[in-house]
Batch of 2 targets.
Target 1
Amino acid sequence: MRIESFATHVVTLPREVGALAEAPEQVSTDFVTLRFRTDEGAEGIGYAGFAAPVMTKALKAAVDALAEQVIGDDPLRLEAINQKLLEIGGRGAPAGLVTRAVSAIDVALWDLKGKILGEPLWKLLGGYRDRVPAYASGHLWRTYDADALAQKGAELVEQGFLAMKFRMGAEANNSTESERMSALRDAVGDDIDLMVDINQGWDVNRSIAMGREMEDCGLYWLEDPTNYEDFDGLARIADALDTPIAAGEYLWGVAPFRSFLQHRSVDIVMVDIMRVGGLTQWMKVAHMAEAWNLPIVSHLAPDILAHAVAAVPNGLMVEHMPWSLPLFQEDLVMENGEIVLGDRPGLGLEFDERWLTS
């Protein structure tokens, strides 16, 4: 069996808020969809995305160029193909659009493998469990005042979420940030897990000071409090606080995670599939984190990463970020705050063709 052809499309999906929530207004997210087809008629799908809109044209060109390189390859030799593309893209040390393109190709090939073998990805990747906890993301932005956070948080609880993440870092003084934190906690109650994402917005000292102020609110984790390359600074924060520190989404490839772990920079390892280089590389970081006795969580792409988190014993939680979900005909199945994975082969998903023909 050989890869015979591929097709790509640019899809623009509407969403309610911007990536860093400059305002709660209708905006959009661009994706490049990919479909491979073998000479025996099997198909696999994936996508690249979460890049700046001005880079969409270049992202599609990167996906097209690299997908062309796997025509004629055996679709089951995923490691060989992944390494070949990473080498082509950056002589073994790629980043940026190249790695996003490789990720799309890798996911599509894993989906294809699942369909060829008749097994869902969560089983092929490890099969540890068939459901994983998920937290609501993409709803509670740093521009929201205390009242807006409280209202939206209560709505998410009504929707069945048992965990949710909100953003901080826009306020100049610590007291206002603490008021926002307290308002959300009061609105959702003590039984809901709350995470805070700073998106690298604080320095080390403010991260420690604010982290200590918020410890009474029982945070599940504090995410990316300072610059992602400051491994020593993150380690200082993690050592100073009882609240676990989650980080890693900004790292490109597998190698930086070794230094991350050696520095004891985090308590919870977060991996972005587009930046690490696909499911093939994501799983390597998961196993590396397991060797350090640390849990791993996903970043974006719950349609794909629910399978990866479910596959490993140290998989902790999936980020239920809805931006990519309309790409597919199927909705994620949620029960009691968990994503339930079925037995459909591969990703268990098919593209909504309306987006691919518009």
Note: Residues 97-117 form the longest helix (21 residues).
Target 2
Amino acid sequence: MRAYLRLLRLNSWKGYFALSILGLVLSGAVPSLIETIVFFLILICFLGTSFSINDYTDVTEDKLHGSKTNPIAAGEIELRNALVFSLTLAFIGLALSLSFGIKAFVYYVIMLATAFFYSVPPLRFKTKFPLDFLTHGLFFGSFILVLPFMLFGASLTSAHLIPLLFSFWTGIIPEFENHVRDYESDKQAGLRTTACVLGPETTARIANFLKLLLPIIVLPAFFAKNFLIFVLTSLVFYAVYLFKYKQRSFYVYESLVLVLFIINTLL
């Protein structure tokens, strides 16, 4: 059981849950308790499917990399059992999404299909620059933000453009960093990820540039309501970030932006 929980990568879910909550707040929907529970169950199934199928298809590279985070590569879960586990989560999520109507079901199918296309051969977008970071920005970024809109029948407007761009942007950055980290094993496996095509140093520079550019993208959403606290915290945070330049700093900042987006929407 512990191995299957590791396969889900629960420690990586916090940001995606925050993104879905932001989407829920932006949608203006007021779901019932049952609808809220089902919504989060659908999200759990999507995240579980995406992470587990990724580990399933990454066994070769993770063995080369000596990864201890992939329980399949470590021999703790058999390949067949991992695939059954991932597909079971996918079908549960599909069944639950159907309870919100055909539009929600079709959207969830698109989310799942993109996640599968990203990981599973022969398409396996994660190994094909630039489809690797573009698809990651969608299914682990914008698609999650939009999920509440599709489930609860809310409409997207131009006012949602900046949060959508923010979610896509923050879905791209971890992909760059993952490819830089896995560069050696991916190169040995003959993959053509962004880091393999552009080189790990260039890819890391692009990721850092995107981090530094993020405040410029999101600030207009807060200026509209004179949200001075966001401007001040951004300046302070990025002053620290520029001097320290630590990866963890970005994820603290990302969490801060998500919280402030939610507060800004509710005010």
Note: The chain has a mean pLDDT of 86.
